[in-house]
Amino acid sequence: MTTSSSSTPSPCGPAAGGASAGAETGEPPRAESPELGVGGSVWFQAGPQTLGGAARIALLAAIGETGSITGAAKAVGMSYKGAWDAIDAMNNLAGEPLVVRATGGKGGGGTTLTPRAQRLIATFGAIEREHRHFLERAAAAVRALGGEACPDADAGTAGSIGTDLAVLGRFALRTSARNQLYGTVAALVRGAVNDEVSITLPGGQQLVAVVTRESAEALGLAVGGAVVALVKASSVVLVAGGALSADHAARLSVRNRLSGVVSGVRRGEVSAEVTLELPGGMVIAAVVTDASVDALGLEAGASATAVFKASSVLLGVGG
């Protein structure tokens, strides 16, 4: 996924205060600088090639809605040939079919999206919304800078810009937590000190987090709201096999148990990173010893369950 952003020139410069300068010199007053803004776009990248941006994703969505290449092409303002060229390019770059044409001749029906295409549409929509929110916040910060009096000295300018960049930097905050699981708040149990938050992940599995009452209120957590659960890979313990039996689960004090299939094992000299693909397509990683990998028979395709304490989960929200 790639994003591109741009902004208009700073109002601090020769054009700033143009009207008063013109009055003093006798020159015609200069037009006021336009309000500073921020723009950008999002697209999927497959290596050095562009898999698709808003136009191609819109085409996929239209195919899903109409079940017809002709109808989809017309809906997005594209020619029939152009639509098929775009589909062929996306199929090749994705490494697997995104669109399957089962029946019908030229312009006929029977065109369907694969599960991978449906996930791409959903993912693009989510990322595009977050990107739009990022641009809105960035634009607000830039406008705040533009509303200040333009500094006279270079040092003042540098200080102002530095402050603004620091604000923008917070929008791109990164976390050391290996696992970032996006979901929806399913339940919120209030306590005197701590709140218990149940989160439903894509695919239907749930996890539980325990956060302070103050943190829950500061984040604005509410049932139905989007949230991201952050879990360090070192906090995740793996159990061989799929869903735990009722007897086995009853003997575990750990609240969170996410079943999945091993999608990768990356070994080191002492430990290994094991990734599980969960129902719904999300991935969770755990760090275990090489000896444990062998003892548990963890290899690609094997079933396993990731378990971790509710207290090991940190929560975050957008905005």
Main features:
single chain, 319 residues, Arc Repressor Mutant, subunit A, 3 domains, 5-stranded antiparallel beta sheet, 15 strands, 35% helix, 30% strand, molybdenum, DNA-binding transcription factor activity, LysR family transcriptional regulator
Q: What is the CATH first-level class name of the largest domain?
A: Mainly Alpha
Q: How many separate helices?
A: 9
H/E series, N to C? Answer: EHEEHHHEEHHEEEHEEHEEEHEE
Radius of gyration: 26 Å
- The name of the CATH architecture of the largest domain is Orthogonal Bundle
CATH superfamily of the largest domain: Winged helix-like DNA-binding domain superfamily/Winged helix DNA-binding domain
The largest β sheet comes out as: 5 strands, antiparallel
Distance between the termini: 20 Å
Q: Mean of the pLDDT scores?
A: 76
Instruction: Note poorly predicted spans.
Output: 5-23, 147-161, 166-173
| Binned strand content | 25-35%
Here the CATH topology of the largest domain equals: Arc Repressor Mutant, subunit A
Domain tally? 3
What's the β-strand tally? 15
Task: Describe the global form.
Answer: globular
Task: Summarize the SSE layout with pairings.
Blueprint: E1 2-7, H1 18-25, E2 38-46, E3 49-52, H2 54-66, H3 69-75, H4 80-94, E4 99-101, E5 111-113, H5 115-146, H6 154-171, E6 179-189, E7 194-200, E8 206-212, H7 213-219, E9 226-231, E10 237-240, H8 246-250, E11 256-267, E12 271-277, E13 283-289, H9 290-296, E14 303-308, E15 314-316
Antiparallel strand pairs: 1-2, 2-3, 4-5, 6-7, 6-9, 7-8, 9-15, 10-14, 11-12, 11-14, 12-13
Helix pairs in contact: 2-3, 2-5, 3-4, 5-6
